[in-house]
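Archive transcription. Copying these from loose printouts into the bound notebook so they stop getting lost. Printout 1 of 2:
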Amino acid sequence: MEIRPIRSLNDYNNALERLELIFDAKQGTTEGDELEILTILIDKYEKENFPIDLPDPIEAVKFRMEQLNMKQKDLVETIGFKSRVSEVLNKKRKLTLDMIRKLHEELNIPTDILIKEYQIAK
C-alpha cells in the first residue's frame, strides 16, 4: 500500500482506478484501511478542484415541490396569494425574508440555498 497526496489529474485518475479495484475490501484489513484513506484523499481533491455551487433558490423550491408531489396552490399558505406564488416561481418576484423562513421550516430547504442571489426574469 503506497498512499500519496493527490496533486494532479493523473494522480486523481490513478486513485480512482485503485479505488475501483479495492472497493469491496473488508474493514480492518490492509486493503480496507487503504480504501478508507483513498476515499478521504479523493474527496479532498474533488472538493478543491471540482466544487459544486449551491443550486438556484427557486429551482431548489421547485425540486422540493416535485419531491413532495406539491402543486403551486400548496405554497399559498407559505408564500402568500396564488398570484404571488406564481410570480416567485417564475422569478418575477424575489423571495422575502419571511418567505425564506417559512420555506425553510415547511419544506426543509436549507436557508443557505434560499438566501443565494438570483436574477429576476425580465
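Printout 2 of 2:
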Amino acid sequence: MYLTIKETAEFLSATETYIENLILQGRIRAIHDGEQYLIYKEQFNTHLKQMEKYRTMVEEILSEPIPEDIDIKDED
C-alpha cells in the first residue's frame, strides 16, 4: 500500500515538511508519479517493531526496583 506525504506524516506522527526532507535526503524511499511522492507503507514496519521493542525494554528497566546497597550502614 502506498501513502502520500500527508498520509505518511499522519501515520508517523510527523509534519509533512519533515517527511519531504527525509525523502529528499534519501532516508525514506519514495516514488514520484509526476504529481506527488508515493511512499510504500511497509518500509516502516521494521522500524516501528524495533521502536516498540526498545520502548518495552526501557519500561522494564524503569520498573525494576532500586536494590538496597549493602555497603550503606545505618548510623543510628
